[in-house]
Amino acid sequence: MQTDELIGLLSADTRPVSRYAPAQRLALGAGAGAVVVLLMVLGWLGLRPDLAKAVVGGFFWIKAAYTAALGAAGFWAVERLGRPGVSANRAAAVGLSVLLLIELAALVQGLRMDGPARLIAIEGGSWTVCTRNIAILAAPILVITLLILRQLAPTRPSLAGLAAGAFSGGLAATLYGLHCPEATLVFVAVWYTLGVAVSAAVGAALGRWVLRW
Amino acid sequence: MDELESILKPLMLEGLNGDAQAHARLLKLLSERLRAYFGRRLSASPDDVEDLVQETLLAVHLRRATYDRAQPFTAWAHAIARYKLIDHWRRRKIRATAPLDDVADFLAAEPVDADAGLDLTRVLATLPVRQRTLVEDVKIHGLSLSEAGLRGGLSEGAAKVALHRALKLLAERLRHADR
Questions:
Q1: What is the ipTM of this complex?
Q2: Which of A33, A138, B122, B144 lies at a 20 to 30 A Cα distance from A188?
Q3: The CATH fold of domain B120-174
């Protein structure tokens, strides 16, 4: 086929494109993924029994704000990295700042405890399953996000996959907070963060293979 | 260089608003840059140049929603061309030998003559018959999309959807055509 013939074909397919199309598609997919994860939390893990009481307390929201901020930075980075020639440095800086802030706060909290109390705080009541649960909950959102990202144009597939994993992990961890009653900064800073990190690592590994176009 | 940007970017913006003529002009000008750009980097396999030009044009067209209007157009187009070149090398298991230059080099390339793209012709033959007929009617017989749709018993809207799907399928299969 001649290239001019191809250009004729392509121009016959010209239609208006919204400048928000990539963000809209990603948000729609994230919404669908969040519904799936919510159903998983309800059907598989169950809500924390004291949820009604927890939502009027402060820490429930601090925990949610932390993981949601990680997710939001991930979403921002995905939206950027889906575009050729665009950097995601600012999104990464925001995400890492939030991470650093919480880790430092948790460190201060941990150092002010005596040894046994610190161990109890770190282990909480669910340290053996927390990270795993978050990684499992992140999977549906990660799959959907990678499929949408594939329709965009990521030119740095590992990095884009990493961002997709951080986004999925952050969103999943936020919903996991509806189930998990852990209420110390120390616990969240270790196991929640690790859950998001696992999701990001899986995303980076998958991105290398899936995000080709 | 800035001159080219000042020509291409407005065409891109008009194309994004649905102006087919501006879009065609943009792709035509871009195809000349791409041909020169790939030509210099594929001197060992000149037959691949036009295939890669066409694959890149398809990508530019199908993924134009990823262009951020605040960004220079040439930076976006160059990033896609560069990605397609590396992808081509990776598929062929060739290690990149030519330097992966900056945008300025992409723009400085001199136009060269076009060959026909063999892969695209081959891949077109693998499309489902309705899509293939539609594509050929528009491409070879120069029919408008609504005329071509009418011949195939499709409404204009259905013909639009069918053409878009056909192009996506072509792009997908083109990536695997040289295996």
A1: 0.89
A2: A33
A3: Arc Repressor Mutant, subunit A (1.10.10)
